[in-house]
Amino acid sequence: MKKSICIVSPSTNMGGIERALVLLANTFIEKDYKVDFISCLAGEHFYELRREICLIEPNFKRLPGLNSRLIFYPRLCLFIRRTIISKNPDAILSFGDWFNPIVLLSLLGLRYPVFISDRTSPDRYGFPLEQVKTILYPRSTGFIAQTKRAADFKHKKFGQKLNIKVIPNALREVSLYSNISREKIILYVGRFAWEKAPELLIRAYKAIPDRQGWQLHMAGTGPLLKSMKALVADLNIKDAVVFHGKIQDIDTMFARAGIYVLPSVIEGFPNSLCEAMAAGLPCICFDSIPYEEIFTNGVDGIAIDSGDLDKLTSAMIELMNDKQLRETLGTRAKQIRNRLSVDIIGKQFTEFIFGE
């Protein structure tokens, strides 16, 4: 009889957590597991689940306002509890700093093995979420840390109360296009949110004295998108900056770009950085994110002091001026395709969850 796993995701909309869980769900199906996928927020399906996977969504929505949220989350807990009891899985997998406590709270008194993973910088949240985690996280069967940084943080906080395993994100299959030539494009892909620091990248790009035709292309949406467009207008660089919004075929953009920059000051394990490397792009990021578990600085990527606008500008100028360096870093970066293949990472998950 097939072993079954129930995956609990915040949604199936665009996002790093959703992308990682959908990728794992599809991989588990290929490995002959039965998979049920609970989406806590009903709505847009940006990522595609295989047809063999049962997608379950609540028939109620989270609306704006405190009163609505006070009603929504108790209903969500009851929905998760009833759904999991009806599916009776062999194991449960949940991602997300906010949703892990909800899942664990929903299953109080039940004996299902629950495996959880936070997906951002381990020290990002404070009161009251960290206090809630302190109470609920030891009830999990296992905790999956994306990096050694995250594992060390959790070991320090929980000691032996948490069963921790380091497993990085799986890398989806990134398409390579031999018929698409590299252009003078500096690319950013991600949410327009404070932790992604898109303003730093825009200001660093503005500070380049001679751009030599290089443009800045930014893909994604988020709460800061409108203000970033206004900033570009204020800096008088509208003709050199392109905002793409949501892009389904991001691999074509990776193929066109010449440089990739991730200006985030906080990240758990950045999917977009890994995908850009898999596409053969030379990449720049800040050292405040766990880059050391993704690339070796100066060998297959460039990490600079966190938040240092001048160094970010200098790193971009160096790559813009040196085609050979771009090609060397990009060629080495593609080796990430082997290290983080979905087969290798998927196997690590099933070994930890099912002991096989």
Can you put this structure into words, describing what you see?
The chain is built from 13 helices and 13 strands. The protein is of the alpha/beta class and 356 residues long. It has a 7-stranded parallel beta sheet with strand order 3-2-1-4-5-6-7, with helices on both faces. It has a 6-stranded parallel beta sheet with strand order 10-9-8-11-12-13, with helices on both faces. Strand 11, helix 9 and strand 12 form a beta-alpha-beta unit. Helix 1 (16-30) crosses helix 13, helix 2 (66-87) packs across helix 3 (99-106) and helix 6 (198-206) crosses helix 10. It starts with a strand and ends with a helix.
**Roughly how much helix do the residues carry, as a percent range?**
25-40%
The gyration radius over C-alpha positions equals 21 Å
Alpha-carbon distance between the termini? 15 Å
Give me the secondary-structure category: alpha/beta
Show unreliable segments: none
* Widest beta sheet: strand line-up: 3-2-1-4-5-6-7
SSE string, helices as H and strands as E:
EHEEHEHEHEHEEHEHEHEHEEHHHH
Globular, elongated, flat, extended or rod-shaped: what is the shape? globular
* Mean pLDDT across every amino acid position: 95
What about the largest sheet? 7 strands, parallel
SS strand fraction? 15-25%
Per DSSP E runs of 2 or more residues, the count of β-strands stands at: 13
Number of helices: 13
Helices and strands in order, then pairings?
Layout (H helix, E strand, L loop, with lengths): L3 E6 L6 H15 L3 E6 L14 E3 L9 H22 L3 E5 L3 H8 L7 E4 L11 H8 L5 E4 L2 H11 L5 E3 L18 E5 L8 H9 L8 E5 L5 H10 L6 E5 L4 H7 L2 E4 L8 H8 L4 E4 L15 E3 L4 H13 L1 H11 L2 H4 L2 H13 L2
Parallel strand pairs: 1-2, 1-4, 2-3, 4-5, 5-6, 6-7, 8-9, 8-11, 9-10, 11-12, 12-13
Helix pairs in contact: 1-13, 2-3, 6-10
